[in-house]
Amino acid sequence: MLGVTGLLAATARLSSPADLVTTAYGAVVLTKVVLLACAAALGGATRARLRAGRLPVLVWAAVEVLVLVAATGVAATLTHTA
Questions:
Q1: pTM
Q2: What gap in Å lies between CA 40 and CA 18, rounded to an integer?
Q3: 56 φ, ψ to 5°?
Q4: Do residues 60 and 45 lie in contact, with contact meaning Cβ atoms separated by under 8 Å?
Q5: For 23-78, how does the pLDDT look when each residue is reduced to its tens digit (9 = 90+)?
Q6: What is the mean pLDDT of residues 1-22?
Q7: Contact status, residue 15 vs residue 22, Cβ threshold 8 Å
Q8: Based on the number of CB atoms within 10 Å of its own CB, is 21 exposed (0-12), middle (13-18) or buried (19 or more)?
């Protein structure tokens, strides 16, 4: 649900897809999308490692948490970027 509302907010502020690379707001949105995709990939890798019985997974989980913290910081930045 958060992804959907974020997408709606971004489309309301960006007039075209080109704004993702030509405006400060677009760059922050793009950064957030990349970070969330990385977090999802890390979560999938952690889950696959758990299913395969390969331990430890704490390092994978810790990196995922750090990426999510960075995404949260970027999301906070979006509130101050016009």
A1: 0.77
A2: 25
A3: -85, 155
A4: yes
A5: 888 888 888 889 889 988 988 888 888 888 877 778 878 888 899 899 888 888 88
A6: 83
A7: no
A8: exposed
